[in-house]
Amino acid sequence: MKPIQRLLTISALAMGIALPIATHAQENSNSGQATAPPSASMTYGEVRRIQAEEGKITLKHGEIKNLDMPPMTMVFTARDKKQLTTLKPGDKVQFTVIQEGGKMIVTDIQTAP
């Protein structure tokens, strides 16, 4: 039984090393530009409410593809409260959100062009 466990452990480690390298090669093989990982995709939305002191922002947003989330209105936590100081309700924005520790965290937000 011990040789089988050793073989499985070695195989798992080898796969853990090989997968990130294969992913990196795929992302950069088609062009000279680096592609953003799915977690960094921007989502469009509209500011509904800002609670700058608490670092909270309510957004009515489109589909958040990297989280497989349909359009809705919800409250997010901003990673950097300073990003909220220039925004006001009604602003059209684009933002990046990740799920971390059970919370939806806005890592980047800016007014939409």
Number of helices: 1
Spans of at least 5 consecutive residues whose pLDDT stays below 50 are 21-39
Q: For this structure, what is the CATH class of the largest domain?
A: Mainly Beta
Widest beta sheet: strand line-up: 1-2-3-5-4
Shape: elongated
Taken together, the total number of domains comes to 2
- Roughly how much helix do the residues carry, as a percent range? 10-25%
Mind describing the biggest β-sheet? 5 strands, mixed, barrel
What is the annotated CATH architecture of the largest domain? Beta Barrel
Give the class from helix and strand content and strand pairing: alpha+beta
Q: What would the CATH topology of the largest domain be?
A: OB fold (Dihydrolipoamide Acetyltransferase, E2P)
Total strands: the figure is 5
- What number is the mean pLDDT? 80
Q: Please trace the helix and strand order, writing H or E for each element.
A: HEEEEE
Rounded to the nearest angstrom, the distance between the terminal CA atoms is 61 Å
Q: Explain this structure to me?
A:
With 113 residues, the chain is an alpha+beta fold. It has 2 domains: 1-35; 38-111, Copper binding periplasmic protein CusF (OB fold (Dihydrolipoamide Acetyltransferase, E2P)), CATH 2.40.50. Helix content is 25%, strand content 35%. It has 1 helix and 5 strands. The chain has a 5-stranded mixed barrel. The chain is elongated, with a radius of gyration of 19 Å. The N and C termini lie far apart (61 Å).
